[in-house]
């Protein structure tokens, strides 16, 4: 899985969900850091407001609140490195 500053929100939660899978490895740079949960409220006039209301708790108990996800392999050319890793997997 490739991570970088454009990996945000649901992409970050996907990376967290897959981090204990032995068949998944992350490459690239730190994610955007949108690791929180927003609630949407509808106002009396129909306008909506999003409020950050929750934190993310990982399986190991670590709590994340707008923390960046760090890849296992920090590298500038993640696609090349990820392809090389895939070739070694059978």
Written overview of the protein:
With 90 residues, the protein is α/β, with parallel strands linked by helices. The chain has two helices and six strands. Strand 4 and strand 5 form a beta hairpin. The longest helix has 11 residues. The two termini are 17 Å apart.
Descriptors:
three-stranded antiparallel beta sheet; three-stranded parallel beta sheet; 90 residues
Number of separate strands: 6
Largest beta sheet: strand ordering: 1-2-6
Uncertain segments: none
Based on Cα principal axes, name the global outline.
elongated
Largest sheet: 3 strands, parallel
Number of separate helices: 2
Strand residues, percent: 25-35%
Euclidean distance between termini CA atoms = 17 Å
| Class from helix and strand fractions | alpha/beta
Mean pLDDT: 94
Could you state the order of secondary-structure elements as H and E? EHEEEEEH
Roughly how many Å is the radius of gyration?
A: 16 Å
Q: Considering DSSP H and I runs of 4 or more, what fraction of the residues is helical?
A: 10-25%
């Amino acid at each position: 899985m490739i991570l970088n500053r454009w990996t945000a929100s649901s992409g970050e939660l996907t990376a967290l969900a897959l981090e204990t899978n032995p068949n998944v490895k992350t490459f690239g740079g730190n994610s955007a850091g949108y690791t929180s949960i927003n609630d949407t409220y509808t106002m009396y006039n129909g306008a909506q407001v999003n409020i950050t209301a929750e934190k993310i708790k990982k399986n190991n108990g670590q709590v994340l609140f707008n923390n960046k996800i760090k890849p296992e392999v920090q590298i500038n050319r993640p696609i090349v490195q990820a392809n090389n890793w895939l070739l070694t997997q059978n």
